[in-house]
Prior knowledge:
heterodimer; A: 187 residues; alpha/beta; Rossmann fold; 7 helices; 8 strands; 19% strand; globular; B: 496 residues; seven-stranded parallel sheet; six-stranded parallel sheet
Amino acid sequence: MCSRPFRLLDEQFRDGELCHDCTRWEEDPDWQGFLQKNTSIFLYNDFLKEVMAKYKFRGDYVLAKVFADYFKEVTKGWEADLFVPIPLSEERLYERGFNQAEAILTEAGKMPTDILSRVHTEKQSKKSRLERIHLPQVFQIDSQTNLHGKKVILIDDIYTTGSTLRHAAKLLKQAGADTVWSITLAR
Amino acid sequence: MRFQIKDEKLIPQRFFTEDSYRITQIPEILQPPLNPDFPYSRELQQILAGKQLLLDDIPHPLDEIQSHYENGYITYRKGIDYIGKKPMCMRCGNKDQQLFAIFHCSRCGENCFYCRRCIMMGRISECTPLIGWNGPAPNITLPQKIMAWNGKLSEGQQVASDKVVEAIWQKKEWLVWAVCGAGKTEVLFAGIETALAAYKRICIATPRTDVVLELTPRLKEAFPEIRVASLYGGSTDRHLYAPLTIATTHQLLRFYQAFDAVILDEVDAFPYTVEESLQHAAIQARKPSSAMIYLTATPNEKWQRECRAGKRSFTTIPARFHRHPLPIPEFAWCGNWQKQLQKGRLPANVLRWIKDRLESGKQALVFFPHIPLMEKALPLLRKLDSRIEAVHAEDPERKEKVQKMRAKEVPLLLTTTILERGVTFPNIDVAVVGAEDLIFTESALVQIAGRAGRNKDYPDGVVTFFHFGKTDEMLKARKQIVTMNREGVKRGLIDI
C-alpha cells in the first residue's frame, strides 16, 4: 500500500498483504481509509539521497525535469481530477526558492492545484513517528474548490512515516474528496 | 530577493513589488560612503573581510547587514551579471550557457537564471547578491616570535626559498618546480614568515582535502602562535578570520580580493586542472596587487614550454633533500597483459618482479590503470602472499590499508593512481602494470616514480614500467627525471 518493495522486507514486518507500518495506520480508527494508496518512484538509497539533497537543499531545479520524466512514466494511465503538491511553509519556500513537489508536476506538464497550506512550521524531520501522528492537523484547505466526488493525487518528495500524506488525505476526504492517492519520489 | 533604489541606496525587498529590481538588472550598484562613526560589528568584519558570501551563509539578520551597507561597510555585488546577452556567474566565472538553468523563483517572483556549476556552494541566481566587506580589515596582533621552525634548508631549497620571499615582496608570479621529495613545504616558511611580519594575509591552496589536512598541523607547528584557518568542505573554521589560511581550491570560491599572496600547491593535480571554476577562484581570491606562488613536481607541458621559452619565472629544485639522484624508471615490455589477466594469469616478467620483492622482503607499490583489472590481479597475487591488499579512491578502508602498509603489515599494495602523490613510504620499489594506458600521463608517471627512494637511509628504489607498447608520455616522464638529475649534478646538489 505504501509502495515499500515487499520482497526486500523481512517476514516479521509483514501482515499478509500489508507491511506492518501500513497495518498500524489502517487499524487506527482515526486514520483508516483516508489514503487509498501510495506509489513511490524510487527506493531511497545513498545515490538517491545525494541526488535529492542536490535537488532539495542545494536547489538544483533542473533535476525536476529528470524526475518529471519518471513521474510521467509512473502515472501513465492514471485518471485524476486534481494534482495537489504538499506545500512548504512560507519560510521554507523562501529558503528553497521553489516547491520541489510542485516543480515536478509543472515539469511533467500537469497543473498543480495549490489548495493546501501549512498551519505551522516546525521541521517534520525533527520529530518521531508518534509525535507526528498525534500532531493536530498541520494543513488547512484554502480555496473554495469543490472536492465532491473528485479523485485527488498528492505529491511529496519522500514517504517516511506516511504521516504528512495521511494528514493531507484526511483533510481532503473530510472536504468531500472521493479517493486520495499519493505519489512520492522516494520510499 | 529584490532591491528598491531610494536616495542613492539599495533597499532590500523580501518579495516581489512593482518598483523593485533583481540585483542583476540594476545597471550600477551604488555604494554609500564609509561612515567612520558607525559602530560596526566586529563579528561581521571577521566573517566578511575578503569574502563573497550569500545571505544564507551569514548568521546575522538582514537588517544588520543592510545598516552596514548603508554606512558603507558592506558591499552588494551581482551574483550573476550579463556579458552582452549572456549570463556569467560572478562567483565561479561560469559562462557556459549549458550550465545555467532557469526556474520560477519564490524569492524574486520571476523566472530566474541560476548557475549550476557552483551550486554545491549554495545557489546563485539573478536575484542573489554576493555580500562583501568594505570596512577596515580586522586587527592582527603579532607574537614576538613568528616562526618556531629552525630546521636547515638544503642548498636547492635555499635558492627557491629566497625566490619565494622575493616574489611575495615584489608581488610577482613564481613557479617552484621541485622534484618529488625535495621538501617543498619548508621552502615556503621564510616567505610566510616575512609576509606575516608585514601584516600580509596569506593563503596556501591545494586541490585536495588530504593535502589540507596534512599541511595544517605542519604549519601550526612552524607558526605556533599564528591563527590558522583550515578550510575544506565541512570544516568548522569557515567563519574564522586568520592571517594564514590553508584551503582547498574549492573553498577559494568564497573569497574575494582577500590575499596578499596565494600559494598554490600541486597545481597540476585533479580537479584543479580540469575545473575552470577553480582557476577562476584562485584569481578572484587574490588582491589585485598580490603575489602568486605555484608549487609542483610536475608542471604540465604548456608550463614546461613557457619555462623553457623564458615566458614564465621559475626556480627548480632538481634534487632531493638527501642529495641522492631520483630513481630512473626502467621500461619492460609485458605483452598483452589485459588479455592474460582475463585468462587468470599475470605476465611472466611482472610475476617474477613481484616474487623477487616478496622473497627479499622489500615492500612495493604496484599501480594499475583501472579498478576491475586490479581486482582481477589481487586473488592471483594473494596465492603468493595472503597479506597483499588493493586500494582505490572509493575504498572505504583506504586509510587503514595505507596505514597497514606503513606499519609493514602489507608486503605489497596494489593501487590505482590515487596513491600517485602525497603518500610516502620509506623503503619501497614501484611498478606500473600497463604504463601505456592513457591515464598514465607524463606527470602521473613522474609522481609515481617519485614514490621510490624517499628516505635518506634508503635512497635507492627500483621503478619499473611494464607496458604493451611504449608511449610518448612514458618517454617524456623518463626524460624529465633524467634532466632533473643532470641539473642536480651540475648545480652540485647531488653527491656522486
